[in-house]
Design a protein that fits this description.
Blueprint lengths: L6 H13 L5 H8 L4 H7 L5 H4 L13 H14 L8 H4 L12 H15 L4 H8 L5 H13 L7 H11 L9 H8 L1 H5 L1 H4 L13 E5 L11 E4 H11 L4 H12 L5 H13 L4 H6 L1 H7 L5 H12 L7 H15 L4 H17 L4 H10 L12 H10 L2
């Protein structure tokens, strides 16, 4: 049988199969083969999902035949929008009365039907569906289908779901997260590093992402709340060979155009890793570049890290620090201004040859307007550095 070519032909063939009570997924696959996403969005209107599989089944003898349920799961995955493809938790009870969820072989066959439906969708649809609350089983289906095409998750919603629901809670005393990445190395090769590149992939710094209780046998016990930066610290600790790259990615993430809320995750992670003097010195150029970042937490991190390194900076690095200073001094945050003046004073002490350049930068800095008030500590600091 030749697959229908036009939307009208596909719709007519789909309606004939449904009217005949066809329960073989193969027949529906032939009708949908090669259909565009636009056609699928139109065809989904022709499937009476609620009539085929009622939302509630009161009696056991009213249960919907398994073949019919699997066809509906297939069609929903093959035709519905990415936000309406169902979830693997609800699918366990689909067409059955409460208290009788699918398990074992029945569940495996249902998940296989869902996978067959999703296999015909575009990579864009799979990425969007992976960012919807479809459940862990469906998420793994979407991700594995993308991997078969040589693609991996790159959107903030799909990666955030990966962090929140797929990765085990990265508690320092737990081995579960380490085993997870060791048993699934492609997650470590791809998705983990996307956390540093895609804004919002790691939930913002103020949110707790995982709740962990060390003693599961004590219901009602206190949970430990873990944040995004706890995952970064855990990975650098449990996979020490990744620590240099993780430190570098934390700084690189803060140079991207992330909001202050989302960038804060990486400054907290970098500080939590407590970089050694050697590690901070190796990152000196990146730290100097962070002085021009927008988030104040990022600038503060760079100032604190550089303060103890000024004596070991090269002449070129010292010059770059001076050049970056004008932008910092022009900011409105007094705390950053004072911290930067202390940094410049330490720089001049370690590199006397920079005194003239520092004086010029401070003297020509475009200070933000301030209301009339007595001489502030920041202003006194400006004068003291200019007098170096």
């Amino acid at each position: 049988m030749t697959a229908p070519a036009t939307l009208a032909e596909r719709r007519a063939a789909l309606k004939r199969l449904l009217a005949a009570g066809e329960s073989a997924i193969d027949a529906y696959e032939r009708v949908l083969e090669g259909a565009s996403e636009k056609d699928r969005r139109s065809l989904v209107k022709s499937v009476p999902f609620a009539r085929l599989v009622p939302s509630a089944v009161e009696w056991e003898w009213d249960a919907v035949p398994e073949d019919t349920v699997r066809v509906c799961v297939f069609l929903r995955a093959a035709l519905a929008g990415s936000d309406d493809a169902g979830d693997d938790y609800g699918a366990r009870w689909s067409g059955r009365r409460g208290g009788d969820p699918r398990e074992g072989a029945d569940l495996e066959r249902l998940l296989a039907a869902h996978r067959r439906g999703a296999a015909g969708r575009s990579s864009e649809w799979l990425e969007e569906a992976a960012g919807s609350p479809g459940g862990i089983g469906f998420w793994h289906t979407y991700r594995s289908l993308l991997a078969e095409r040589g693609a991996y998750l790159t959107s903030a919603p799909s990666l955030e779901y990966f962090a929140r629901r797929i990765i085990p809670a990265p508690h320092p005393t737990s081995d579960e997260t380490q085993r997870f990445f060791e048993e699934n190395p492609t997650f470590l090769d791809h998705e983990f590093w996307e956390f540093f590149r895609v804004e919002g992939a790691l939930p913002g710094s103020a949110l707790f992402v995982w709740m962990y209780r060390e003693d599961p046998s004590a219901p009602g016990g206190d949970f430990e709340r873990l944040h995004s930066h706890d995952l970064v610290r855990y990975m650098a600790t449990r996979f020490p060979h990744l620590r240099p790259r993780i430190l570098s990615e934390c700084l690189a993430a803060q140079r991207r155009d992330f909001s202050a809320y989302n960038a804060r995750v990486f400054s907290r992670a970098w500080e939590a890793l407590e970089p050694t003097r050697e590690e901070r010195l190796a990152a000196a150029a990146d730290l100097i570049a962070l002085l021009g970042a927008e988030p104040s937490s990022t600038v503060s991190l760079a100032q604190k890290a550089l303060l103890g390194l000024v004596g070991e900076l090269t002449v070129e690095q010292a010059g770059a620090l001076v050049q970056a200073s004008a932008q910092v001094l022009a900011r409105s945050e007094k705390k950053l201004q004072r911290a930067h003046l202390r940094l410049l004073a330490a720089l001049v002490k370690a590199h006397p040859g920079c005194a003239a350049a520092v004086s010029d930068v401070v003297g020509t800095a475009e200070f933000p307007p301030r209301p009339a008030r007595p001489c502030s500590r920041a202003r006194r600091g400006f004068r003291s550095v200019r007098g170096l």
